[in-house]
# Entry
Amino acid sequence: MTAQLLDGNALGQKLRAGFKQRAEELAAQGMRPGLAVILVGEDPASQVYVRNKVNACQQAGFHSDKFTFPADVAPQVVLDKIAELNADPKIHGILVQLPLPRQFDADAVLDAIAAEKDVDGFRAENVGALMQGQPCFIPCTPYGVMKFFEDAGISLKGKEAVVVGRSNIVGKPMAMLLLHAGATVTICHSQTRDLAEHCRRADILVAAVGRPKMITGDMVKPGAVVIDVGINRLQDGPDAGKLCGDVDFASVKDVAAFITPVPGGVGPMTITMLLANTLESAERALNA
Ligand code: NDP
# Structure
């Protein structure tokens, strides 16, 4: 292996230790940071993500509330809960775990969250502010990726960055943050012609697709920084049931200069930055 590992567990722990201290300082002033998580339905992956987020809050000394609803709940019931949480002074961040069941208009649900509690940064208003470089909250997954660059001293100015995936929650905000940091950014997606050619030009390559091991060593420029956002559960073969990313770690690690593992890369950083945003929201509430 030539690539240096970007370890999300280690970086996450380092940052979370600082958050815990800040949370204690806030609590001493009567303001314990609080996160409310809403889960609709029984999707096993979503249940794991929600449990991890609630546990992370508890470990950092935050207050956390979890609200679960059956998959067939009427959307108005969830909207009413959001309205209640918007008015609750103990809560500084509200997170609705995605995806939502079909009867929901996800955009309408996200837009129901008060702007000052939108710690995922998914409200349309926040997305617009992100484009202008002044977001209220930076979406957690791309925010965590930017922390890897900062911590490892990886400069982005003038670099060719390629983001594979154009979702509203990962690909697009990721591209915007890289652009603001001075990179020249290409966004690839399912209609992109010759994905491999685009990837091979990348100094910084971010894969956020949801297809196991689709980025292989021959698609990576020697010395590139490769960030694997994908979380996939392998269906067949000897590793069936195990998690893997969108990047074929085995072949890419010998070509890249830096690489994130799955698990233990971007995932823990997403939760870490959720804590960061909740803490920031609580600090703003105290100063308001
Ligand atoms: P989406 O399904 O919303 O988006 C996937 C994107 O990949 C789409 O833009 C799609 O293109 C593109 N795509 C699909 N197939 C190809 C292909 N063959 N070539 C190029 N692009 C393709 O997924 P998310 O953005 O929500 O998530 C992506 C992955 O990241 C998933 O594995 C998810 O589990 C993981 N994830 C991980 C997080 C973490 O904390 N580590 C947090 C959030 C997500 P098009 O738009 O044209 O359809």
